[in-house]
Specification:
Elements lengths: L4 H11 L13 H15 L7 E2 H7 L6 H9 L10 E2 L15 H9 L12 H4 L5 H8 L7
Helix pairs in contact: 2-4, 3-4
């Protein structure tokens, strides 16, 4: 069934989302704690490397929370390198204000990340996959990403 733009806009308004603006979700202490852990981990992703939403969730021990990682990234503080987080196909996900993702791709290109003709980054080549020992060290507060 096709939904008209007006019907979709009404449904989004009911859900708390307006045209092109992310939903404002109330943050419980638990959710805010998870968001803060996302921010801390993404700050450790080195320039020229990328991670996926699902990979961040898995690294934080909650592999079913990729969408929550997306919500965290959508409203992250300015010091979080949000542009280093891609979807599971190595693509830029749509975001308010940059529907084409060109800004994010440009930021990644400036760091040396390359995109193919399908606008995908090679996750095997540019993905950040720290060793478990390094990840533990990073998440426990010691060490920098490589």
């Amino acid at each position: 069934m096709l939904i008209s733009c007006d019907a979709r806009a009404a449904a989004l308004a009911i859900a708390g989302e307006s045209r092109g603006e992310p939903m404002k979700r109330p943050r419980s202490e638990k959710r805010q704690g998870f968001f803060n852990r996302v921010y801390e981990l993404v700050r450790r992703v080195p320039p020229g490397r990328v991670v996926t939403y699902g990979q961040v969730a898995e690294m934080l021990g909650d592999p079913r929370q990729a969408r929550t990682v997306g919500w965290a990234i959508a409203g992250c503080p300015e010091d979080v390198p949000w542009h280093r987080v891609l979807n599971s196909r190595g693509e830029v996900s749509r975001r308010a204000g940059d529907a084409s993702g060109e800004r994010q791709r440009a930021m990644l290109r400036d760091e040396g990340v390359e995109f193919n003709a399908y606008r995908r980054a090679d996750l095997k080549r540019f993905g950040w996959d720290p060793e478990p020992r390094e990840l533990f060290k990073l998440l426990s507060g010691g060490g920098e990403g490589k």
